[in-house]
Design a protein that fits this description.
binds fe (iii) ion, 7-stranded mixed sheet, DNA polymerase, domain 1, 10 helices, 2 domains, binds adenosine monophosphate, binds zinc ion
Length: 282
């Protein structure tokens, strides 16, 4: 039992399982370690850690923070920070506030396009914070689209007809707030940056590294084999830690499997070991 998953969401953000259910599932599928990386919140970490102790799953405290990036989407993952760090908690609250202000605007856009969807039903789908996946699920349940993916591609994706911008911290701040709370910052799913040119990607990754980034999520379900090789070499070349995760969201994402065997590459405990060594080197 050496498999791990370093990227998962609970119903504290936009996953469909509670933190405890998530850890139960991890135990069932035979994961040795699991990081809970909810968007902009650490509300589920304590419950996950407690469940992990009961079930013999090593739970890594984590978070996923969206950063400003004009072209594509940049998400920064944080691990092993102090989950009660006041400055970090304040920043996360600002992000939660931005999300709360944005959701009704998205729903208004959808309504103005003639889709009957209400805030109440979206809130009902979520366990806590509302995000676009809950709105997507509501559109599926109403029969306007047949999948979460279709809800995003037709309406909710960046630049889509019902897309509304929200406040994000610049990458430097997202990385710094994780580090100041004693944690490790890594770059999530680099393919969403939508950078085609490998030199451009390398130069961005080294800029992020100068800001304090320590790892790259190399193994990810949506990465092609070619991307995986590219990101792995990028990580090696810059001496960044390679990480991997499924980005599990339960039924709030299509094709979402916890501890997914990504492209036949086992995301195993050695990756977590390398991450932990970075902490010890400090
Ligand atoms: P929000 O935090 O409300 O902006 O929603 C972002 C979340 O929506 C991401 O974390 C993903 O879970 C999901 N998401 C974003 N883009 C897509 C997409 N194209 N297809 C499916 N899910 C997506
Ligand atoms: Fe998400
Ligand atoms: Fe993400
Ligand atoms: Zn995620």
């Amino acid at each position: 039992m050496n498999r791990i998953d370093l990227h998962t969401h609970s119903n504290c953000s936009d996953g469909s399982f509670s933190p405890k259910q998530l850890v139960q599932l991890a135990s069932k599928v035979g994961l040795r370690a699991l990081a809970l990386t909810d968007h902009d919140t650490v509300a589920g970490v304590a419950e996950a850690v407690a469940a992990g102790k009961d079930l013999g799953v090593e739970v890594v405290p984590g978070v996923e923070i969206s950063a400003e990036y004009p072209a594509g989407t940049m998400h920064i993952l944080g691990y092993y920070f102090d989950t009660s760090h006041p400055e970090l908690l304040k920043a996360l609250e600002e992000l939660q506030q931005a999300r709360a202000e944005r959701n009704p605007k998205i729903i208004e856009r959808l309504q103005s396009l003639g889709l009957e969807i209400t805030t109440a039903e979206v809130v009902n789908i979520s366990g806590g914070q509302v995000g676009r996946p809950h709105i997507a699920r509501a559109l599926v349940e109403r029969g306007y689209v047949s999948s979460i993916d279709e809800a995003f591609s037709r309406y909710l994706k960046k630049g889509g007809v019902a897309y509304v911008e929200k406040f994000r911290f610049p990458p430097q701040e997202a990385i710094a707030m994780i580090r100041r709370a004693g944690g490790l910052a890594t770059l999530a799913h680099p393919f969403t940056l939508e950078i085609e040119d490998s030199r451009e990607l390398t130069s961005l990754a080294s800029e992020l590294q100068e800001m304090g980034l320590e790892g790259i999520e190399v193994f990810y379900p949506d990465h092609t084999e070619e991307m995986t090789v590219l990101y792995h070499n990028l990580a090696r070349g810059l001496a960044l830690v390679s990480t991997g995760g499924s980005d599990f969201h339960g039924n709030l994402k299509d094709r979402s499997y916890l501890g997914e065997d990504i492209l036949g590459q086992k995301v195993d405990y050695g990756l977590l070991q390398a991450l932990k060594e970075r902490l010890e080197e400090r």
